[in-house]
Amino acid sequence: MQIPWEAPLGTVTATSTVGSSTTTTQVTVAQFSPGIFTTTQTGSGQGIIVGPNGIAAPSGAFPGSQPVNPGDFITIYCTGLGPVQNQPATGAAASPSPLPQTTVQATATIGGLAAPVSYSGLTPGGVGLYQVNAQVPAGVTAGNAVAVTISIGGVASNSVTIAVATPAPHAHQ
After folding, report:
1. Smallest Cα–Cα separation from 105: which of 86, 124, 85?
2. Fewer CB within 10 Å, N or C, the chain?
3. How far is Cα of residue 166 from the mean position of the Cα atoms in its chain?
């Protein structure tokens, strides 16, 4: 479910109908509430994060998956990054041109280190789906469960994991 762009901030009444069953509840709408999607759909564990060669996960965890390397660019799929420039209509797909960037730039950390962010905004072609494009920082510790978080507007996301490869040793000449 996508909260309409026009929804006011604060407590609002949300109504959902499935078949003949209708549920009404009070929900809080905040400007920022970042959340990274996970493969387990629980908000923890392996994040839905794509590296240069497919999903970036512990080796063998998913077909075609492999760890990322320091310096690689990754795409972190998430929700709750707030208003964007070039906002589509509620329920409409985001346009690829011009890109619907967030009005406040998100930040990212990987393994506790700041990761340079090149884009935070809606995913072109997606409805209400955000992404953060970041570069895996040099010096990040390798492992199959390296922590990844994003923040925007002073609000931090859930912590998820990604696999980071051990850098290949440099040949001495």
Report:
1. 85
2. C
3. 24
pLDDT category of residue 54 using cuts at 50, 70 and 90: confident
Q: What is the DSSP letter of 65?
A: -
**11/53 Cα distance (integer angstroms):** 42
Is the link from the previous residue into 63 a cis peptide, with omega within 30 of 0? no
Consecutive H or E run containing 164 = strand 160-164
pLDDT band at 93 (very low <50, low <70, confident <90, very high): very high
DSSP helix, strand, coil percent of the chain (3-state; round to 5)? 0, 45, 55
136 touches 83 (CB < 8 A): no
Q: Which residues on neighbouring strands pair with residue 99, listed in sequence order?
A: none
Indicate the SS3 state at residue 3: coil
pLDDT at 45 (0 to 100):
86
* CA 31 – CA 63 distance, rounded (Å): 36
pLDDT given for residue 157 in this prediction: 97
Q: Read off the pLDDT of each residue in 60-65 and give the average, rounded to a whole number.
A: 69
